[in-house]
Amino acid sequence: MLICEIFKSIQGEGKFSGFPCSFIRLSDCNLNCSYCDTKFAKEEFISLTNIEILEIVQKFNTRFVQITGGEPLLQEEVFDLMNLLTSHKYNTLLETNGSKDISSVPKNIHISLDIKTPGSGMESFNLWKNLEFLKPTDEIKFVITGKRDFNWVLKIIDEYKLNKFENLLISPVPGKVSYRDAAEWILDLKLSLRLNLQIHKIIWKGERER
């Protein structure tokens, strides 16, 4: 597999934020989001087997492992990697940009699925049928660049009846949406939305965390 980096850090987002986690960042992505903070994943890579990846992860001694990118589902071998990690009793998380079919992702994998907002410039790549394959305990993440994106999110939640999901994440883009504004927009509603602040970026501001 083409791997950008493997490292240990604090899980910065979503349901398991705050826990130590091993991150496997796969190379390459099929999208070009306006706010992308991992453009290096398209350029940096080494080739590793799934067994080699497992051996590195085992040295980190974490309960959680997240497969991220780039876009992990571009590489077919990722499905074998997910099964390998879960067979070794890791709580395995998959972060995907929502443009690739998730129907073959094993049911014991926790999925964090992006739904691309208009501000991303990639809205047309949302694969809406993916919503059929999510479990209620999975995460849906909306990265917002302003109030227009936030209002669009509310329409999508209503249109696709997303309230059944336990984790609807609102992720404000730093420098475009203040955390306070995003919090107040959420507080004005009766919806169960979760403010997602990427605590790893607060801890390692301006750095690639390790």
What's the SSE blueprint?
Elements: E1 2-10, E2 20-26, E3 46-47, H1 50-60, E4 64-68, H2 78-87, E5 91-96, E6 110-114, E7 139-144, H3 147-159, E8 167-172, H4 179-187, E9 194-195, H5 199-203
Parallel strand pairs: 2-4, 4-5, 5-6, 6-7, 7-8, 8-9
Antiparallel strand pairs: 1-2, 1-3
Description:
With about 210 residues, the protein is of the alpha/beta class. It has a single domain, classed as Aldolase class I (TIM Barrel), CATH 3.20.20.70. The chain is about 25% helix and about 25% strand. It is built from 5 helices and 9 strands. Strands 3-1-2-4-5-6-7-8-9 form a 9-stranded mixed beta sheet, with helices on one face.
List keywords for this structure.
nine-stranded mixed sheet, 9 strands, TIM Barrel, alpha/beta, 23% helix
Helix content: 10-25%
CATH fold descriptor: TIM Barrel
Considering the protein shown, what is the CATH homologous superfamily? Aldolase class I
Distance between the termini: 21 Å
Ranges where pLDDT stays below 50 over 5 or more residues in a row are none
How do the helices and strands follow one another from N- to C-terminus? EEEHEHEEEHEHEH
Number of helices: 5
> Which structural class do the helices and strands define?
alpha/beta
CATH class type: Alpha Beta
The Cα radius of gyration reads: 16 Å
* Sheet with the most strands, sense and barrel status: 9 strands, mixed
Strand segment count? 9
Task: Give the overall pLDDT as a whole number.
Answer: 95
Strand content: 15-25%
Can you tell me the number of structural domains? 1
